[in-house]
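Researcher: Quick test of sequence recovery. Tokens follow.
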């Protein structure tokens, strides 16, 4: 694999987007926005998924590249995007550099009123949940153990489905407005950073507590008193 950039510049992002539209989207693969959500879930998930395992879903049907050089160039773009996402999740809402911002489509002026049918963020959330499927059991464990993770998933589900489901899952959901979608998108970096912290904590080895061996009752006490252990520190 060619050396991947630390992040993608504008030309590389455009090149990757074109490749996905031509070689992935027609074959039920990802567009750029879905890829961004997919890699985001992989970067903050409960286990590390190797490149060979996750890249297949990106294309839908594995493409035939013109030659080995083209394949290596494409893989370098994918890994550049991965590097970009991996750096992004280390930042919150307030300190995210512009060049690491989530890659999803928004209107030219997002603050203008838009039709609520405009489903911004849908493809990003779709990609995120596709990656969750690769570690479903471990994600389920996090959801069971942490209510706040479940809350994040509910918000992402609103982007994907366009509905806010009430207490009765059989009842029709309330449509998600464009403004509500924007609020979720604006808080993406913070939510990803929180999941990243959970991942780091979960993957950090814990040092076992080592208890010193207790001396025999008739041995000298290790405190140096000269008395037998049973007559000193080991006395009941």
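Model:
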């Amino acid at each position: 694999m060619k050396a991947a950039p630390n992040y993608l510049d504008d030309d590389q992002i455009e090149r990757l987007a074109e490749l996905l539209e031509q070689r992935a989207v027609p074959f039920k693969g990802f567009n750029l926005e879905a890829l961004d959500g997919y890699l985001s879930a992989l970067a903050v998930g409960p286990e590390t998924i190797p490149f060979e395992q996750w890249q297949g879903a990106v294309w839908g049907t594995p493409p035939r590249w013109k030659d080995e050089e083209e394949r290596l160039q494409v893989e370098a773009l994918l890994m550049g995007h991965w590097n970009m996402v991996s750096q992004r999740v280390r930042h919150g809402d307030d300190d995210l550099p512009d060049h690491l911002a989530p890659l999803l489509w928004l209107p030219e002026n997002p603050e203008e009123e838009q039709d609520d049918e405009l489903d911004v963020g849908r493809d990003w959330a779709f990609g995120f949940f596709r990656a969750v499927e690769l570690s479903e059991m471990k994600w389920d464990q996090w959801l069971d153990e942490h209510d706040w993770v479940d809350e994040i998933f509910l918000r992402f589900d609103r982007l994907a489905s366009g509905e806010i489901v009430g207490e009765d899952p059989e009842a029709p959901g309330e449509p998600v407005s464009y403004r509500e979608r924007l609020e979720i998108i604006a808080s993406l970096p913070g939510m990803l950073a929180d999941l990243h912290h959970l991942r780091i904590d979960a993957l950090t080895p814990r040092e076992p507590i080592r208890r010193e061996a207790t001396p025999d009752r008739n041995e000298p006490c290790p405190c140096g008193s000269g008395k037998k252990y049973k007559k000193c520190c080991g006395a009941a």
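Strands lie at 163-164, 174-175.
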